[in-house]
Amino acid sequence: MDILKVDITFESTNELHLGVQCAELIKQQTKVFPLLEPLAVLIKKFLAIRDLNSPFKGGLSSYGLILLIVAMLKRNNFLRVSHAFFHFLKYYGKHFELNFDFIDEKM
């Protein structure tokens, strides 16, 4: 039996929930970066196996993951998902300096 996980927002500080805008941004970025979708699926599975895919448990949200991937893809041109995956793990796991580096959410 599959379990359906949902996230429902009841209150928002904005009149318009930003989920629709985020979804549009992701659609646009998948057109610009063809590796974005398969890479995101691979990393999400990698994180899920390690129980790191839920921000409520200290993991990474899907949107946060997309922002990290897009930031990396903007700096590098990869031809294969495997190369991008290895670089993602190496860069954010070893080289990303939390005190100095940042991701610009405006992309």
3D architecture notes:
The model has no long low-confidence stretch (mean pLDDT 84). The protein has helices at 19-32, 36-49, 62-75, 81-95. Helix 2 packs across helix 3 (62-75) and helix 2 crosses helix 4 (81-95). It is globular, with a radius of gyration of 15 Å. The protein is mainly alpha-helical and 107 residues long. It has four helices and no strands. It has a domain at 33-95.
Give me the secondary-structure topology:
Layout: H1 19-32, H2 36-49, H3 62-75, H4 81-95
Uncertain spans, ≥5 residues at pLDDT below 50?
none
Shape: globular
Overall pLDDT: 84
Quantity of strands, as a count: 0
Notable traits:
107 residues, mainly alpha, 4 helices, globular
Sum this structure up briefly.
The chain is mainly α and 107 residues long.
